[in-house]
Amino acid sequence: MKLSQGVEWGLHCTSLLAQAPADRPIRRDVLAGHYGLPDAYLAKHLQALTRAGVLHALPGPRGGYRLARSPERITVLDVVEAIEGSTSAFVCQEIRQRGTGAVSPDQCSNPCAIRSVMDQADAAWRDSLRGVTVADLVDRLPPGVRERNADLLAAAGG
Amino acid sequence: MKLSQGVEWGLHCTSLLAQAPADRPIRRDVLAGHYGLPDAYLAKHLQALTRAGVLHALPGPRGGYRLARSPERITVLDVVEAIEGSTSAFVCQEIRQRGTGAVSPDQCSNPCAIRSVMDQADAAWRDSLRGVTVADLVDRLPPGVRERNADLLAAAGG
DNA sequence: CGTATCCCGGATATCTATTATCCGCGATGT
DNA sequence: ACATCGCGGATAATAGATATCCGGGATACG
């Protein structure tokens, strides 16, 4: 079980966009260069974030990406689900209904206890991620980093 | 992000072993047949559970598997970590230290906020799984299933 | 003591998902 | 009109999960 690295990329990029002036979109290659990421592949994840309504993409010259809403209203879960999907990591294959010990379908109207437990843990995981916003992530940056990022983004935009 | 199906297999098998008489081990092919699983591949997961100290394997004729301790003392997390490992699903690649926006290593003595949030969510997931035992899973079986499993296991053992 | 049974560990093959890149298309601002 | 930039599809390469097989060692039974 491993999370896509796109989750890390997406969280860093949305955090960085939260530090940019709202009126000026950031180009994709600037985002990629800022973190040393492959530009073409990062595009896939940014597109996913755009489709999910987390980012807003502006085509054309002086185009780029900006947040679709304020950082206080974007949760970490929003970013994670945009990239990883919202389906539970545990996929129940109903093996209780297979083999010599197969339980009759009548007794399977309720999900089995194993599935319930795994789904409940998945919900706890998502609840935890829903409790943190992108604004919180920016607040927890080491001192000086925000200012430096603002300068770098301004230089790239000019 | 997907959990190995071995987790489902392991949880069902440990639950089934909890329903067997403690003095008689259950052969691997009986476990596989009970749920319609490939015997050879199930062996890999049962070996992992044995190495983790969840199951106890007895070689030789009349050998097989039994629980290494009482079902009340085996948590769902024990089984999950035996098969999936105990490392967090999120692997931080420290991209904050790469690219044009690289943060100096001096400022990276603390883990970044993104990693902290993901690790905290992972802890919440594990805490949830730690709160349920194999005995709880058996208690939540539909009425009649326990008795039928006991009969099947007795027939297979005789 | 010999033999049959059963688990262990390594080697191997297949399949799927992730990672990564490229190119044509459409949209936008100058 | 033209250059810039994001969108989406097609395509490889790589890693991990899935599945199988076989030799070796341990144990029970005759």
From TrEMBL, chains A, B:
Gene Ontology CC terms: cytosol
Matches recorded under Pfam families: Rrf2
An annotated Gene Ontology molecular function: DNA-binding transcription factor activity
Domain of life, source organism: Bacteria
PANTHER family, A to Z: TRANSCRIPTIONAL REGULATOR-RELATED, WINGED HELIX-TURN-HELIX TRANSCRIPTIONAL REGULATOR, RRF2 FAMILY
Protein name in the entry: Transcriptional regulator, BadM/Rrf2 family
Organism: Goodfellowiella coeruleoviolacea
Taxonomic path: Bacteria, Bacillati, Actinomycetota, Actinomycetes, Pseudonocardiales
